[in-house]
DNA sequence: CATGAATGAGACTTCATTCAT
DNA sequence: CATGAATGAAGTCTCATTCAT
C-alpha cells in the first residue's frame, strides 16, 4: 500500500492556497462540530473539494488537526504578542475577550483552545505542540515585563517577573474559559475585572 | 439540574445502583479517551455489563454524556464549596491543583471539564447545565465573601464582592487549564502564584 | 480508538461455526477473485452476514487471509499425508492432479496455493506460515521413505532420502503449477509422467 | 502473442521507448508490491513520468498488466531457450534457480510468474497468453531433445520426447515454486537435485 | 433482567482514471 | 506531448443501537 508515493510535499503557490482552503474549512468544522465529530467529508464540503483531494495536501486527518492546532497557537501567540506591545494591556485583553465571546473568527477560537488542551492529555504530538507554544508565550510576557520602559517594556524587577508572567498567563487562560462558559457576561463586569487584575499585577 | 436526562426504567434502588455503575465506568472512559472516542463497548466493559443493558438505564450515549457532565459539575461544586468553607482557601486551591495535575480521580477531572466546556458551545443542553452550575458556584463564593467573619465568612464589603468572586472563579478556571497544559509545573511556582493571588484578592 | 475492547476471543460453538462460515466464504472469494480483489463485502455477502459482523471473529482482513492460508496448508498436508500412507503414491498424485485441474473444492486450491506463495514474498507472516508447512511436509515425506517396509514405509537408505524427498516435493509443486496452467491437459500425458517420475524416484 | 494489447498512440520509436519505460517501471512495481497493490502512481513515479501520460500508451492498468505478463513470458521463453541451447542444461538450471532465489531482475521473476499463473485462472486473456507461451516452450524443449546430436540436440527417440519434455517443464515449474518458497535453500541441495533429475531425464 | 450477536450507517482512506492547462 | 490536480467509487473498519434468546 502507499507504495512509497509522497503525496504531501508541494510548495507551489497553488498547493499553498489549497492547504489554506482546507485549513480554513477544517477550522470552521472543528469549531462547529469538534475535532472528532467533524468528518473529512464535512471539511471537504466546506472547502468545496472532494474528500480524496485533501489527501494530496495532508497525510491524514491527524495532520489536519495538528496543523489547525499549530495555526491556532500561532494566532494566539500573535494576539498575545500584540497585546503587550501596546501599553494598553487591559484594553487589549478586553477586546480579545469580547471577540472570544462573540466567536469572532479573526481570533483564535476559545472553544477550540479548550478542546485542544483536553486532547493534549491523550495525544503526545498535540501535547508537544502546546508545550512549545506555552513556553514561548510565557517568555514573551516575561521579556516584555522585564524590558526597560524606554524600550516599550514595563521595567519590572527581574525576580518578580516569573511569577507575574505566570499569573498573567493563568488569568488569560481563565478569561478564555470564562468567555466560553459565559458568552453573555455583561461587558461592565469583565472590564472591571480585567482592570483590577492588570493594575494589581503590573504595578511595581 | 438533572434537566432532560432520559431514564428508561424506574427509580428502584437497584436501578439507581446500575446507573451509578454505568456513570462511574463512563467517567473513567471519557477521561481516558474523550467523549467521542470512548465507545459504548468500552464503557460496558468497564462497567462489567453488557452493552445492551446500558440502554435500559440510559436512552443513548448522549444521555450518558449529559449525566456525566452534570455529575462532574456536582462534584466540582462540592469541591469548590468545601474550599471556602475552610479559611485556608490558598491551601485548598493548591491541593486541588496538584490533584488536577495528577489526574486524581477523586476530584473533577480537569480535561473533562475543558472538553465539556467546549461541548457546551455546540450543545444547548450542556450549555444550560453549565450556566446553572456556574451561577451557583459564583453565588456560593460571593456569599462566603460577604458573610460576616463570625459566621465563617470573610466579611468583605458587598459592593466589592461581585468582582472579587468573579475574579476568583476566573482564576480557578485558569488554574484548571494550567493544570492540564502544564502537568509538570513545579509545586513551588504554583504555590507562590496561588498565595499571591489569594492574598491580593481577599484582602479588604 | 478500539478502547481496549477485545473482539475476537470467543470459544463458543456458535462463534466457531461463524468463523467457519466466514472462512468458507473467504476461501470461495479468494479463489474466485484473488486475495486482493476479494473485498470484505464480497466475503460477507457470500457468508450471508453483514461486513461488520466479521470483525467480531477476525481482527481484520489480514487475519482472514492468514487463517485461510493456514487452513489450505493443513488441508494440503492432510492430502499429502494420506498420499504416502498408501503404497499407491502415483495413483494418489494423479487423483490430486485431476482435482486440481477441476478446481475441486474438496482439495486445496492450486491457484490459491500459487498466490499465497507469491504473497509470501512480500508478507513475512505468510512467509513464516509457509516455511513451517513446507518443513513439515518435507519431513513427513522423508520419514515415510526412510521407514521400514513392514511399517508402511519404503525402506529407502537414509542418505538418499533427503534428496528424494526434496525432489518429490519439487515435483508435486510442479504438478500444482501445471494443473493451473494446463487445466485441459489430457489424463494420459499426466498419468505417464507421474508413473515415470514415481518409479524412478522411489526405486532403490 | 501480443494479443489484444490496446495501444493508444501509434508506433513511433519515441512511443515505443515510452512504452518500454512504463513496462520496466511496472515490472519493478509488480514484483515489489504485486499486481493489485502496485498503484498507477507508483508505476508513474518509478517511470519518472506523470500518471496521466501513461494513459497515452496504455488504455488502462489492465493493459499494462497484460503487457507485463506477455513480456515476462517472452523473457522466460528466452531464458528457457538459452538453457537448452547449451549442452549444460543442469548448470543453466542451477544458475536460473539461484537467480530466482535472489530475485535477480535480469531473469523472469518467479513470484510474478506464480501470480500471473493464478491470475490466468480468472482472466481469459491472461490464460490465453500463458497457454501460447507454454506450448512454445514445450515444443522448443521437445525439438531440442529430438534434434540430432550433430545439430546441437540430444538425439533422443521421438516417441519418448513428449513425456520427457513435459516432465522437464514440470520440473522447472517446481523449481520456480521452490525458489519462491525456499529462498534460503542451500546451493548444495538444489545442485544435487538438479543433477539427479537431468541425468535421469535426459539419458537415453 | 440480561446478554451479546447482528446490523447499517458512516468514518477514514486509496486509487484508477480524466481533463484543463 | 505532458502534467498533475481533481474526482468518485470503492475498500477497510468502527460503533451506536436493536432484538431474539
Blueprint (SSEs and pairs):
The structure is a homotetramer of 204-residue chains.
Chain A: H1 13-33, H2 40-46, H3 51-54, H4 61-85, H5 89-102, H6 110-120, H7 124-146, H8 158-181, H9 187-202
Helix pairs in contact in A: 1-2, 1-4, 4-5, 4-7, 5-8, 5-9, 6-7, 6-8, 7-8, 8-9
Chain A binds a DNA duplex (21 and 21 nucleotides) through helix 1 and helix 3.
Description:
4 copies of one chain form a homotetramer. Chain A is mainly alpha-helical and 204 residues long. Chain A has a domain of 140 residues: Tetracycline Repressor, domain 2. Helices cover 71% and strands 0% of the residues of chain A. The first copy, chain A, is built from 9 helices and no strands. In chain A, helix 1 packs across helix 2, helix 5 packs antiparallel against helix 9 and helix 6 packs across helix 7. The longest helix of chain A is centred in the middle third of the chain and has 25 residues. The mean pLDDT of chain A is 90. Chains in contact: A-B, A-D, B-C, C-D. At the A-B interface, helix 1, helix 6, helix 7, helix 8 and helix 9 of A face helix 6, helix 7, helix 8 and helix 9 of B. Chain A binds a DNA duplex (21 and 21 nucleotides) through helix 1 and helix 3.
Amino acid at each position: 500500500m502507499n507504495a512509497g508515493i509522497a503525496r504531501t510535499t508541494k510548495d507551489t503557490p497553488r498547493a499553498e492556497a489549497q492547504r489554506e482552503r482546507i485549513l480554513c474549512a477544517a477550522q470552521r468544522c472543528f469549531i462547529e462540530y469538534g475535532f472528532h465529530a467533524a468528518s473529512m467529508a464535512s471539511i471537504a464540503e466546506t472547502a468545496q473539494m472532494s474528500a480524496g483531494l485533501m489527501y494530496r495536501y495532508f497525510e491524514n486527518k491527524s495532520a489536519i488537526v495538528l496543523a489547525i492546532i499549530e495555526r491556532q497557537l500561532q494566532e494566539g501567540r500573535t494576539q498575545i504578542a500584540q497585546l503587550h506591545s501596546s501599553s494598553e494591556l487591559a484594553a487589549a485583553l478586553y477586546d480579545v475577550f469580547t471577540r472570544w465571546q462573540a466567536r469572532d473568527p479573526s481570533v483564535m477560537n476559545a472553544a477550540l483552545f479548550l478542546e485542544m488542551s483536553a486532547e493534549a492529555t491523550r495525544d503526545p504530538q498535540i501535547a508537544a505542540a502546546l508545550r512549545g507554544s506555552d513556553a514561548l508565550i510565557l517568555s514573551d510576557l516575561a521579556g516584555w515585563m522585564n524590558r526597560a520602559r524606554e524600550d516599550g517594556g514595563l521595567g519590572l524587577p527581574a525576580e518578580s517577573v516569573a511569577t507575574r508572567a505566570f499569573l498573567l498567563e493563568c488569568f488569560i487562560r481563565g478569561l478564555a474559559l470564562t468567555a466560553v462558559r459565559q458568552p453573555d457576561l455583561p461587558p461592565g463586569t469583565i472590564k472591571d475585572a480585567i482592570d483590577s487584575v492588570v493594575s494589581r499585577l503590573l504595578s511595581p
